[in-house]
Design brief:
The complex is a heterodimer. By secondary structure, chain A is mostly helical. Chain A has one domain: Cytochrome Bc1 Complex, Chain C (Up-down Bundle). Chain A is built from 17 helices and 2 strands. In chain A, strands 1-2 form a two-stranded antiparallel sheet. The two termini of chain A are 39 Å apart. By secondary structure, chain B is mainly alpha-helical. Among the domains of chain B are: 155 residues, Cytochrome c-like domain (Cytochrome Bc1 Complex, Chain D, domain 2); 31 residues. In chain B, the strands form 2 sheets. A two-stranded antiparallel ribbon of chain B has the order 1-2. In chain B, β1 and β2 form a beta hairpin. The two termini of chain B are 44 Å apart. Classes of the chains: A mainly alpha, B mainly alpha.
């Protein structure tokens, strides 16, 4: 499952040889993230974010397990138990701020990881399964993060839970029974809080399991690279260890610096003040907004304001889920055989001037109040989002004339055009069109 | 099959979105959203006080926290609870163990308890381990004593409002006469919105979200609270001291956070430089470009 020139695990110490015979766990690690995994030599910093996402998950699981030792999932005391952690538990403030901001860091690196996949065509054959499993992880993360935000039982926890489970109420006929079943009642209460806590504890381990599949599926074709040209021989690769462990070590340092700056000096910057008010079913906050990482999808949900055959709310719910689900079909929507956008002049234009600003604008509007002009702006941006993936991308992949690809990774590296840099300028890449 | 179906789904969503946009635009043009009094006259918190605890090296000023505590005790505590803070926590702002014991036992409201012989509800003097007792037995009692309004708990107030420390300061110093009140653009509130006149039992304050709140101006004049350290007791002084005190009650570990953070960042800078050097060293022979 690896390239034939991959370095072979050869334990020298008798104990390691013994272990290799009985339980070849070191061999597995060696082949997965050690010297036994040959990786293209031209990866740029955008290839750091997978490892960083794994590190973020580890931080979340470790801080989360300790927090769970002090937290009480009961509507009467949940809010105060979080404040107990902040005030009376040794280093409790550190654990809780690390967990809350760690979730944001997890989403930041995962969004950059997805961005990398979209720009460099990592979703294309032969890596479709890697992409699909990645999207499964993303969905599980969203569910986990949403339920985690409910646990402090503040105003935004309660009303966020109410709005999001209310989405299921938009489904015709069976919607309301489903909503009641999900919540264990007619509104979020103790039953909902308890099951959210249970699932919030479970899902990270499911994520870890899917990550194993994600990496397993990745190791069959091997990692992609910025040129999008497949590995042709040993000269194109370097062993993962020490080359990429060293680079990932540096990436981890930068990641932790950003994380520490946020955690220690702006721990509430990404949160909402209303969540420091205990949940009150009788008082609706002026603006109910989810955490920032849901804003683009929240903007799509709220962009549908007019009934058209179906009720507007149902359109919003369908569109919000479709916005994520359509990514599952991306490997088949984009038929271009060229992977990297560095060699796709037309796709690159739509990517930089269409998709990227569109998602940023949706994010901004999702965090803004549901007023004009934000609603109209998010309607335009959401329309572009769907058009980009479902209409523009399939057409572009048909009509586009890609730039000539290098013959191999090594050729690109030696020519100084390793394709390792992101390019926005179409003209400078190849004027020969 | 994926692409034709995708194309139709895409057209569907784009069509409905543009349809929504069309109706939204028509409504926007034919009936532009009317500005509300809150929109036009609500003010963001003032930033005129330089608090000692802002910035990455910020620390609390213990003298200020003790003054703020006195303002809370003599003014705010009559209506507002501080239910997440314990008397013992006061030792962290410079009170001695003995002083804390005295403060607890002399607190105007006693801690709810039971009569040890009959089991009847009773009260007892507080001890340092107790939380600050609430001025009202429950929400109904609080509302009954405050013309239907509920004085919120103040433990987390500076984190439960945007820009909370400055918000508390601005609110306490922001009461003005509504008559003739103008915003920065020079528009007069009661001329632009005659209906926005402050109702019976309410008080006008542009820093409050909907401009009118039930709380009467709590800080009314000089020397309302006598400071033990000789600081001149003016309304802005009392307001900033109590805003600082409430920042401490909301974030008692702020100083730990700042100092641990400094150590962590210095360590990480060192770690990152080392990993950068290791990375460069290992790739030395591969970077032929």
């Amino acid at each position: 499952m690896s390239f034939p020139w991959a370095e072979q695990y050869a334990p020298k110490h008798p104990l390691m040889r013994y272990l290799d015979e009985k339980l070849p766990l070191p061999r597995l690690v060696y082949n997965a993230v050690g010297a036994g995994y040959p990786v293209p030599r031209n990866l740029n910093y955008f290839w750091n974010f997978g490892v960083l996402a794994g590190a973020a998950l580890a931080i979340q699981i470790i801080t989360g397990i300790v927090l769970a030792m002090h937290y009480a999932a009961n509507g009467a005391v949940a809010f105060d138990s979080v404040e107990h952690i902040m005030r009376d538990v040794n280093a409790g403030w550190l654990l809780r701020y690390a967990h809350a901001n760690g979730a944001s860091m997890f989403f930041i690196v995962v969004y950059l990881h997805i961005f990398r996949g979209l720009y460099y065509g990592s979703y294309k054959a032969p890596r479709e399964m890697v992409w699909l499993l990645g999207l499964v992880i993303f969905l599980l993360m969203m569910a986990t993060a949403f339920m985690g935000y409910v646990l402090p039982w503040g105003q935004m926890s309660f009303w966020g839970a109410k709005v999001i489970t209310g989405l299921f109420g938009a489904i015709p006929l069976v919607g309301e029974p489903i909503q009641t079943w999900l919540l264990g009642g007619f509104a979020p209460d103790n039953a909902a809080l308890n099951r959210f806590f249970s699932l919030h504890y479970l899902l990270p381990f499911v994520i870890a399991a899917v990550i194993v599949l994600h990496i397993w599926a990745l190791h069959i074709p091997g990692s992609s690279n910025p040129t999008g040209v497949e590995v042709k021989g040993p000269q194109d690769t370097v062993p993962f260890h020490p080359y990429y462990t060293a680079k990932d070590g540096f990436g981890l340092g930068v990641f932790l610096l950003v994380f520490a700056a946020l955690l220690f000096y702006a721990p509430n910057y990404l949160g909402h003040a209303d969540n420091y008010i205990p949940a009150n079913p009788l008082s609706t906050p002026a603006h109910i907004v989810p955490e920032w990482y849901f804003w683009p999808f929240y903007a799509i949900l709220r962009a549908f304001t007019v009934d058209f055959i179906l009720p507007a709310k149902l359109w919003g719910v369908l569109a919000m889920f479709a916005a994520i689900l359509l990514l599952f079909f991306l490997p088949w929507l984009d038929k271009s055989s060229v992977r990297s956008a560095n060699y796709r002049p037309l796709y690159r234009k739509f990517f930089w001037f269409g998709l990227v600003p569109c998602v940023l604008v949706l994010g901004y509007c999702g965090g803004a109040p549901a007023e004009e002009p934000y609603v109209m702006i998010s309607q335009i941006a959401a329309a572009y989002y769907f058009a980009h993936f479902l209409i523009i991308l399939p057409i572009v992949s048909k009509i586009e004339r890609p730039l000539p690809l290098p013959n191999s990774i090594t050729e690109a590296v030696l020519a100084g055009k390793d394709g390792a840099t992101l390019s926005t300028n179409t003209a400078s890449a190849q004027p020969a069109e | 099959m994926v692409r034709p179906i995708g194309f139709l789904v895409g057209l569907g969503f784009v069509g409905v979105l543009l349809w929504s946009l069309l109706w939204g635009a028509i409504a926007y043009v034919s009936e532009p959203p009317a500005p509300t009094a809150e929109h036009a006259f609500h003010k963001h918190p003032k930033h005129e006080v330089a608090f000692s605890f802002t910035g990455p090296f910020g620390k609390f000023d213990q003298g200020q926290l003790q003054r703020g505590f006195k303002v809370y005790k003599e003014v705010c505590a009559a209506c507002h609870s501080l239910r997440l803070v314990s008397f013992r926590d006061l030792q962290n702002i410079g009170f001695t163990e003995g002083q804390v014991k005295t403060i607890a036992s002399e607190w105007a409201i006693e801690t709810p308890s039971i009569n040890p012989e009959t089991g009847e509800p009773a009260t007892r003097k507080s001890i340092p381990a107790d939380r600050f007792p609430s001025p009202f037995a429950n929400e109904v009692a609080a509302r009954a004593a405050n013309a239907g309004a509920l004085p919120p708990d103040l433990s987390l107030m500076t984190k439960a409002r945007h820009d909370g420390t400055n918000y508390v300061y601005s609110l306490l110093t922001g009461y003005v006469d509504q008559k003739g009140y103008k915003n920065e653009k020079g528009e007069e509130l009661l001329k632009a919105f005659p209906d926005a006149k402050t109702g019976e039992g309410l008080h006008f304050n542009p820093y409050f979200a909907n401009l009118n709140l039930a709380m009467a101006p709590p800080l009314t004049g000089n020397d309302q609270v006598t400071f033990d350290d000789g600081t001149k007791s003016t309304v802005p002084q009392m307001a900033q001291d109590v805003a600082a005190f409430l920042t401490w009650t909301a974030e008692p570990k702020l100083e730990n956070r700042h100092s641990v953070g400094l150590g962590v960042i210095i360590f990480l800078l060192f770690f990152t430089v080392l990993t950068w050097m290791a990375y460069q060293n290992i790739w030395r022979d591969k970077k032929g470009h």
